[in-house]
Amino acid sequence: MIGDNIKNLRKKKGITQDNLARKANMPYATLVKIESNVVKKPSVQNVAKIAEALGVRIEDLLKD
Fold first, then answer.
1. Total domains, the chain
2. Is residue 35 within 8 Å of residue 53, measured between CB atoms?
3. Which of 59, 62, 48, 55 is nearest to 12 (CA)?
4. Which domain holds residue 14?
5. In angstroms, what CA-CA distances link 1 with 7, 22, 29, 33, 48?
6. Which pairs with CB-CB distance under 8 Å and at least 24 residues apart come from 38-46?
7. Which of 17, 22, 40, 42 could form a disulfide with 46 if both were Cys (CB 3.0 to 4.6 A apart)?
8. CATH code assigned at 13
9. DSSP E strands: which ranges in the chain?
């Protein structure tokens, strides 16, 4: 799921959830909900912000 992909990429890059939320300019709670798959279908805008903050393509976050 997308949340798992975000979490794995974030950990690989050594970034905390708080740091990623700041870089992506989104509330910390929103990022946590996406990463924990509470939000199963995050908005395109949020996915784009997270991808940019992680330095990856949106497609990389959507892979199964």
1. 1
2. no
3. 55
4. 2-62
5. 10, 22, 18, 13, 16
6. 39/3, 40/1, 40/2, 40/3, 42/2
7. 42
8. 1.10.260.40
9. none
